[in-house]
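Quick one:
INPUT:
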């Protein structure tokens, strides 16, 4: 899917939760719980563009893979014991990347059958993202660490804005290697529109002190950041002005398929069809913390993962 890109507007502003409203709740009939064969805490999930090949990663170096759209999952040997925080699938799923504690970065080039690892830094890396290329991507983590690669293996440090300090939690990009956003502790958000040459501070004033733990951007102008306070902070102009809403589920994971359709997960799952103005409860309390989400470009197929090897799937956009 090709989306038209617009330049980022770097300004500052904030809104209030009164600006947006919540929808009515719904029964969790649209989601099915899949057998994962694991009891590990799963922290992230990602799929190929055709939603066929996918990976879920979690604590203790756990990597689960599927080659049939999530119908069945099998454990793969990651070769590491580090907790894995994030996974990224650039294209058809043959190549994938993961990162985690102790600076671990993993790569597969054979659909997850084997993984090679390296440690470019010592800091825990909590987010990795290859938006559209098997070779060009970013990873980020503790100590304001953010790295970029242009060959899929050699990493170089990026320079955050002056005075910018955070432990990064998430990365997001609208299917381009040029525009990328990162968020983390202390309510911090930064963005680049030139592939990392220059990063700008876009932090929402109304999220000061909040750990922003999830991030989604269906375009270079619309940006969503999920806070540990359960609030989703939203900007419609590339980080210049922010408003906020509480979907009522927690905001450990966010995923959007386009300008309108998205999912938010914490203990339960909420869905939106109007760009986050209204959220509808789609799945009640799952009984576990949900930490990772992925949604297809068409907005129908989505996966959410969490504690206890939990994998949830919908084929109806959660409706």
């Amino acid at each position: 899917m090709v989306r038209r890109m617009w330049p980022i507007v770097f300004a500052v502003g904030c809104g209030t939760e009164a600006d947006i409203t919540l929808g009515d709740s719904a029964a969790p009939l649209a989601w099915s719980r899949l057998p994962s064969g694991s009891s590990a805490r799963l922290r992230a999930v990602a799929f190929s563009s055709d939603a066929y090949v996918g990976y879920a990663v979690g604590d203790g170096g756990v990597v689960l893979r599927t080659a049939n759209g999530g119908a069945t999952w099998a454990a793969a040997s990651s070769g590491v014991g580090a907790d894995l925080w994030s996974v990224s699938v650039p294209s058809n799923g043959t190549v994938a990347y993961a990162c985690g504690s102790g600076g671990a970065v993993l790569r597969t080039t054979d659909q997850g059958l084997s993984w090679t690892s390296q440690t470019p830094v010592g800091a825990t890396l909590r987010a990795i993202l290859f938006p559209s290329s098997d070779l060009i991507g970013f990873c980020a983590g503790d100590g304001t660490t953010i790295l970029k690669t242009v060959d899929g293996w050699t990493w170089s440090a990026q320079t955050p804005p002056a005075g910018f300090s955070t432990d990064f939690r998430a990365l997001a990009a609208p299917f381009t290697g040029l525009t990328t956003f990162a968020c983390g502790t202390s309510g911090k958000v930064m963005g680049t529109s030139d592939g990392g040459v220059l990063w700008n501070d876009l932090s929402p004033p109304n999220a000061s002190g909040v750990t922003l733990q999830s991030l989604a951007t269906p375009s270079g102008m619309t940006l969503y950041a999920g806070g540990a306070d359960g609030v989703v902070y939203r900007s419609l102009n590339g980080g210049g002005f922010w408003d906020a809403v509480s979907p009522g589920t927690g905001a450990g994971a966010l995923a959007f398929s386009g300008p309108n359709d998205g999912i938010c997960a914490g203990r339960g799952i909420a869905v939106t069809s109007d760009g986050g103005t209204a959220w509808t409860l789609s799945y009640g309390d799952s009984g576990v913390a949900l930490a990772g989400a992925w949604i297809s470009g068409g907005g129908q197929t989505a996966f959410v993962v969490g504690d206890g090897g939990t994998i949830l799937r919908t084929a109806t956009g959660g409706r």
